């Protein structure tokens, strides 16, 4: 009995202690936040909606139900607006709850490392690495875009909070509170999206870094696989790729012939010409791709021969120079190909199809299809160039390793060459000709050209160093450094010329006759050359014209200054045509420098709308149109876009859109205005704003004379 009583007492005490502990935990737990009162919101109101989905979902439902029932208590004029805002709030919370417990992106894992790899595996993994890098860059763009969305949502929340504070008590305050909840929920959605995007980008960057490191590891573990016929098969592949290059060259020549002699006086003729021009560009891209494919096959063949049999590294170095020249040429031309193709695609897609006949529609579809094929081939070409650069590094590494075994042999060969050179050098003491009483030997001639070559190399090195200094500087500083580089080049060459003439024993006093002859020559035949040379010096000293400036001459020529030379200046037009202009034209004629002081410009785009249109809505549409054009200079204080009402026209209200554009827009004024007109028409149509046709009022006079 005593034992049973003790057991009951123990159980009772344990239960009491458990109850006390549970009560204490519940007491220590933070109480659930109260439901927001839209007429009296607090600073911590949003805490009511936070937490896990299981916690937040019933609170959101309760809030929406309560707000819906309170709408009936509002005045009739506010009920419709409140219901619309409540529907938006409901949509926002639905999206937010779906994002709260959103699944995190799965991490990508690389396959296990292998002991050895093949060339094909290297190129395959290099493609994966490029794709990973591209994906990481795209995700960064998405992060930046979402950050801008969040900034806008934050500004709208602040604006709604200010409106709530200023709203009068009653229905207006309640409706303002509901709008504030809408703005805050939109901000929360953007915050969660940004969090997920940042996490995904971080994982993408890590994967891209891992794939890049794996490519380097694979390059170090390359081995030749296959039987004795591997080299023969590679040679057959080189022959096949060579034949493909010849076929591509034939297509280019055929496209060049097709593009000549067209009648472009009609719209259909102009469309046909643009199709043939794009076909020529497409053929050039195909040729470049075939050449890179051939280089890839050759690089794999050379590497295989080095590993299995050894090869002539001298011939290999020559071949590597050809590959490097090919890569440089394609890298230089590829942006122009893509830009011209994008322009053609934009132009073709901008043509109104409703006014075209069947033949013109077929031509238009062919233009679009050809441009799209060119862009696809350009993407393949870019990947092929990247593969070629990778294989070039692999071949170079194998060649350096192979050359170590022949170092002694190369030393003996070099000693033989040196002794032969010494025997040949003894022939340089013989007199070739005389200037006055000064004999000139072969060594003198050699010394003369060596001094000039050294001067040219020195000038090139100094200009390269100057350009390196200005790589990260402003455009004005770069132009100044270019001027310094050109003047330094001229000074070095002139000094070197005098030194070279002195080295052969020439007396400068005897050059008086030469100077006189030059004076006569300048007076009669070299006047224009000297004029252009002096004009070039004036341009360099005055900085009225700099490399990189976008200019316009009185003749109508427009383009970018590519180089300022001794006699002339090279201008590159927007059509990628290089035009050589004498320097004197820039001094004697009127010159418009669009980018002299700054690299940004303000463009004026006039447009008209029908009478009766809402002016504020027109302003809103025009300003939104500027945001859709990539040339617009954004986030620059004092350089905001503006819309002016300029006049009451005969047929329309005439407006003027003033917008500051970036450097790219300043270089292409016609294309820039076209882009803004394009965006304006889209936005005006979106808002239902009419662009009027010409109108005339007809008045009939009464009292016609009787017959």
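^ structure tokens above, recovered residues below v
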């Amino acid at each position: 009995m005593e034992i049973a009583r003790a057991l009951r007492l123990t159980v009772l005490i344990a239960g009491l202690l458990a109850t006390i502990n549970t009560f204490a935990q519940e007491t220590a737990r933070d109480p659930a936040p109260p439901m927001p009162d839209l007429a009296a919101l607090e600073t911590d109101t949003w805490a009511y909606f936070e937490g896990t989905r299981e916690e937040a979902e019933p609170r959101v439902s309760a809030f929406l139900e309560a707000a819906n029932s309170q709408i009936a208590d509002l005045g009739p004029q506010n009920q419709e607006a409140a219901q619309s805002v409540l529907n938006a709030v409901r949509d926002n919370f639905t999206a937010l709850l779906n994002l709260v417990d959103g699944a995190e992106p799965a991490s990508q894992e690389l396959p296990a490392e292998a002991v050895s790899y093949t060339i094909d595996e290297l190129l395959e993994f290099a493609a994966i690495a490029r794709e990973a890098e591209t994906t990481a860059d795209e995700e960064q763009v998405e992060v930046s875009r979402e950050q801008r969305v969040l900034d806008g949502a934050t500004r709208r929340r602040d604006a709604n909070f200010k409106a709530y504070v200023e709203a009068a008590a009653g229905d207006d305050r309640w409706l303002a509170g509901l709008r504030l909840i809408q703005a805050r929920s939109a901000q929360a959605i953007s915050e969660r999206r940004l969090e997920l995007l940042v996490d995904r980008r971080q994982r993408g960057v890590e994967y891209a870094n891992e794939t890049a490191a794996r490519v380097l590891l694979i390059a170090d573990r390359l081995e030749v696989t296959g039987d004795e016929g591997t080299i023969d098969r590679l040679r057959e592949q080189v022959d096949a790729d060579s034949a493909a290059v010849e076929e591509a060259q034939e297509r280019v020549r055929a496209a060049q012939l097709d593009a000549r002699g067209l009648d472009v006086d009609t719209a259909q003729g102009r469309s046909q010409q643009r199709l043939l021009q794009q076909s020529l560009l497409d053929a050039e891209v195909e040729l470049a791709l075939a050449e890179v494919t051939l280089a890839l096959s050759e690089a794999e063949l050379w590497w295989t021969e080095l590993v299995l049999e050894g090869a002539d590294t001298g011939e290999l170095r020559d071949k590597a120079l050809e590959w490097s020249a090919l890569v440089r040429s394609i890298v230089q031309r590829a942006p122009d190909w893509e830009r011209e193709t994008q322009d053609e695609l934009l132009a073709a897609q901008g043509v109104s199809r409703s006014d075209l006949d069947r033949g013109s529609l077929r031509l238009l579809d062919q233009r679009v299809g050809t441009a799209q094929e060119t862009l696809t081939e350009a993407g393949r070409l870019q990947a092929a160039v990247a593969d070629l650069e990778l294989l070039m590094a692999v071949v170079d590494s194998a060649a350096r390793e192979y050359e170590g075994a022949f170092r002694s042999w190369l030393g003996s060969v070099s000693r033989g060459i040196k002794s032969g050179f010494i025997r040949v050098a003894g022939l340089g003491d013989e007199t070739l000709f005389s200037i006055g009483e000064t004999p000139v030997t072969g060594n003198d001639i050699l010394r003369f050209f060596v001094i000039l070559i050294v001067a040219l190399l020195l000038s090139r090195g100094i200009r390269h160093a100057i350009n390196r200094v200005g790589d990260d500087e402003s455009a004005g500083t770069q132009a100044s450094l270019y001027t310094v580089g050109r003047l330094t080049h001229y000074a070095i060459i002139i000094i070197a010329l005098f030194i070279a003439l002195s080295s052969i024993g020439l007396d400068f006093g005897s050059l008086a006759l030469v100077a006189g002859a030059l004076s006569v020559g300048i007076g009669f035949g070299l006047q224009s050359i000297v004029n252009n040379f002096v004009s070039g010096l004036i341009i360099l000293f005055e900085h009225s014209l700099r490399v990189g400036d976008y200019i316009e001459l009185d003749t109508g020529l427009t383009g970018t200054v590519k180089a300022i030379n001794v006699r002339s200046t090279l201008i590159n037009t927007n059509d990628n045509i290089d035009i050589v202009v004498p320097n004197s034209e820039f001094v004697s004629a009127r010159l418009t420098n669009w980018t002299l002081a700054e690299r940004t410009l303000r463009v004026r785009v006039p447009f008209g709308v029908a009478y009766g249109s809402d002016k504020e809505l027109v302003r809103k549409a025009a300003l939104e149109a500027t945001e859709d054009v990539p040339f617009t200079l954004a986030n620059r204080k004092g350089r905001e876009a503006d819309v002016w009402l300029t006049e009451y026209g005969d047929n329309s209200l005439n407006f003027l859109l003033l917008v500051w554009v970036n450097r790219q827009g300043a270089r292409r004024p016609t294309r820039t205005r076209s882009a803004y007109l394009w965006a304006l028409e889209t936005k005006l149509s979106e808002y239902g704003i009419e662009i009027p046709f010409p109108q005339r009022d007809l008045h009939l006079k009464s009292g016609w004379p009787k017959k």
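The chain has 18 helices and ten strands.
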